[in-house]
């Protein structure tokens, strides 16, 4: 079967973004775009500003300078409003209700009748866990649930924060094909923030490397996959001096 042709639409447009906390800047002059059907990985060392970037996109932080346009809307819109427009966000803490069952964690996200079937189709292992409290699941099972619970809402733009944190390589390998699948088949745009660079490079189309709040490299992922030795240099590279 011929793969569907995904029209390339800009789902996320960031221009000249300065943002931080309490007047202290974390990101400087950042430009970024995510289009439908592509996975963009954001890499960088601790403190580079990766999670701050996601909070600015989600509407938790407001820009000090520049603009953030999410799914065609910019300005001070709430987290809930952005979610209603089609923004999905899986935070590093996973955002699950530990006392609720797997089934109920999915039910509270959407009333769609096929939600449970879709969740299990993404991650068949969840099928045997539907009546188990989320809090007793393994880390890998919780991450599957967190991702499935957002995907059943059919987001247009998906933010993933440190998806592989604390997980075994085998679990990460089970998660990556789902991210690639929703981008390729459903046209979802994905912004993947990761510490585990090889996994992010493997699944992504493009990558952005942050260091101390500035972009130090933008590249197609295939180029970096062909020359993995470049990655260490990218992490060690410093940004221009902040004026």
Rounded to the nearest angstrom, the distance between the terminal CA atoms is: 54 Å
| Order of strands in the sheet with most strands | 6-7-8-3-9-10
Regions with pLDDT < 50 over 5+ consecutive residues?
A: 238-243
Helix content: 25-40%
Based on the structure given, which CATH architecture of the largest domain is correct?
Answer: 3-Layer(aba) Sandwich
Name the average pLDDT. 88
Count of alpha/pi helices: 9
Query: How many domains?
Result: 2
Under CATH, the topology of the largest domain can be stated as Rossmann fold
Beta-strand residue fraction: 25-35%
What is the overall silhouette? globular
Order of helices and strands: EEEHEEHEHHHEHEHEEHH
Classification by helices and strands: alpha/beta
From the alpha-carbon coordinates, what is the Rg to the nearest angstrom? 18 Å
Secondary structure: number of strands: 10
CATH level-4 homologous superfamily of the largest domain: P-loop containing nucleotide triphosphate hydrolases
CATH class of the largest domain: Alpha Beta
Biggest beta sheet summary: 6 strands, mixed
